[in-house]
From TrEMBL:
Region annotation Disordered: where it falls in the sequence: 82-117, 221-273
Domain WRKY: 115-177
Subcellular localization, as worded in the UniProt entry: Nucleus
Name by which UniProt lists this protein: WRKY transcription factor 70
Amino acid sequence: MSILSETLIAKRRRLIGELVKGKKIAAQLQTLLHKPLKNNGSVSAEDLAVKILRSFTETLSVLSSNETSQIYGVDGDGGDTGASACSEESEKKPARVKDRRGCYKRGRTSDSRKKVSPTMEDGYAWRKYGQKNILNSEYPRCYYRCTHKYEGCKATKQVQRIKEDPNLYQTTYFDHHTCTDAMRAPQIIVDSDPVESLNLLSFESKIPWNQDHTSRSMIKISSSAKEEPKHDTQSDMSDLKSSLEDSNLWQEIVPMEQKSSVDAPVWDPKTRS
DNA sequence: TTCATTTGACCGTG
DNA sequence: CACGGTCAAATGAA
């Protein structure tokens, strides 16, 4: 027990160290991007990018080597997923409202992962199904589920703008995508969504995020990525992969069974009922 | 016409 | 009863 917590503490230290390092290098890269002419060759943007990637890669490898939920401090007491589908027909209520008693449960007991990002874009196609004003929160919370819910993908997420910094969004992911890459750009699959970590490379100050970046526009981006598989992400990923292969980190990050799942979409694109 | 978003109602939990 | 998560009709966009 104590040994376990010690290793956890060590891992946490290592993670924090890596993240701090990555943040510093990212800041350097940011200034470099702002004044590219001043790049007299001391440090190239590419070098910095590689360093950042390495730092985040290291972080991911630590995360994927053990329970991420513990490190994130997220609940994960097992049990089944929050909402469950309505069972069947029931006509005990007025036409407008069907009887939804027992249709869903609360309490998200499945694994959840939190992420703070300047963008809601994460490479997946999401469909908004609700929005609520939350007590003591200035901004509403938006509820999304995977577009391919009807193919069996149970992934959902909640997005909420952060009160202290409205440019940032806190996204909480529930469940995992089972629709994999059939409808989105290919990517590495790690325990927690790897694309999220790559999104960290999109610098907030470079992107004109203003308050008009609503969920709507972000979702549009998601679905367009689905419809025409542009492979920006893919080329990014292959760059990343090739740079990582040099350092043998790639093998560490991608567990065996997940590597094989990349080219084996599990969802079946059938017509939904 | 199809598909996504909006929005108010419904429902379970604490 | 309040709150938060979900549903589904209405509405809008392509």
